[in-house]
Amino acid sequence: MSNLRTLVFFATPPHDCSYLPDREATTMFVDPRANVDKKLYSQLTALGFRRSGSHYYRPHCEHCNACVPVRLKVDEFQPDRNQRRVLRKNEDLSCRLVPAAFSERYYRLYAHYIEERHRDGDMYPPSREQFTSFLVDGATDSWFLEISLGDKLAGLAAVDLLDDGLSAIYTIFAPELEDRSLGTFAVLWQIEEARRRGLPHLYLGYWIRECRKMSYKTRFKPIEALRDGHWRELQSD
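RE: above sequence
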């Protein structure tokens, strides 16, 4: 079994940054041959790593530190007025956690979401292989949050269970339901699930001050940022 002392890491060559124009990025990966169990995955997450399929990675850019790992302290969280409005608006939804696995029903929602909202991104065009390699492969105590409106699959959130919290991997939803703010709703649901399990944190991935798409993360407070090896409350304003 691998541990932090025995892990080997690899860095990619510089490549175009997915978030900030005119910048190059370098990504550090855990050796894909490593046997990463839940304990090690939890330790890596606390060090700022994320999971994408069977890959564990974090930014490792020589001249840029814009990508900041963030996590929410769930016991101290209180929804603001807008978040309470989102909860009220979605009281008619039903939610359940199921083991992360491929299904044609999930893929159809994924493809619809990517085609409508991310045609300009590196995930377009979608494919079944892409869905599986991103959201199913490498799953370690990994789950899908099914969000349903009657018989309709309204949203799907990939969630990993860690020793000290939940890790929000990715959320998709039916584009025609955009006014329901299902991305926010999925985070609020995961906060309550972490509380129910007695877990202190919800990991929300990376936050970039200059990236508008990530600004929603700082609306969940108190949020902590990992800087210089220490988690401290993020001052985003």
